[in-house]
Amino acid sequence: MYTAQGIRSNDELVTRYAPLVKRIAYHMIGRLPASVMVDDLIQAGMIGLLDAARHYDEHQGASFETYASIRVRGAMLDELRRNDWAPKSVHRKARDVAAAVRRVEAETGNDASGQAVADEMGISLDEYHRILLDASTCKVINFDDLGMDEGAMGDGSDESSPAPLQAVQDERFATSLSGAIDTLPERERLVLSLYYDKELNLKEIGAILGVSESRISQLLSQAHLRLRARLGDWLGK
Q1: Residues 6+ apart with CB under 8 A from 151
Q2: Of 44, 68, 85, which residue constitutes the final position of a domain?
Q3: Which residues, including other chains, have CB under 8 Å from residue 213's CB and lie 6 or more apart?
């Protein structure tokens, strides 16, 4: 039986697309704690790749590589969620930052600066930056909090297809998310684009912008939390 793109067996498919799985794993590992092993991500990604081969439907419009990338990332995210390393305090502080951003921007009508958010929270700027660094390593695990679950494309089967109302809601959210990204400060938009669109790692982005890798991690986390704040109506927060 043929799978995607005429490949006759799962073994052939794994051989052909293994580099894709490894590329995604090494891209993702860049903002995860040292306790996460890249081999674990690759193993989960391979399972996602095989699952993609079983469910791919070329009539859905997406190429197999695009579809497989979504399923591979989704499998890796599932693995990370099952072994969520981050203390609850990290998630709580991240929510506190998002809430503070929302309050400051509602009051001023401008992008909330790091100092303004720190003042709103009653903490130092250094402590705010530490929260961003901590949050940056758990955002990949909880990025679906923004409705951006990378497995959301589904498996292409009829029973997993979203209901019409859900599809409309997802489309509206995607529009809102796109609009929110467009309103981010230019530097944060650029970091998001380089990380997600160009798939550069934090070190490479830092070299382009002339700042440290940790600063890029802060900017990426700050962009995520700002989006979370601006999409509060969707998130019910």
Answers
A1: 70, 71, 73, 74, 75, 77, 78
A2: 85
A3: 202, 203, 206
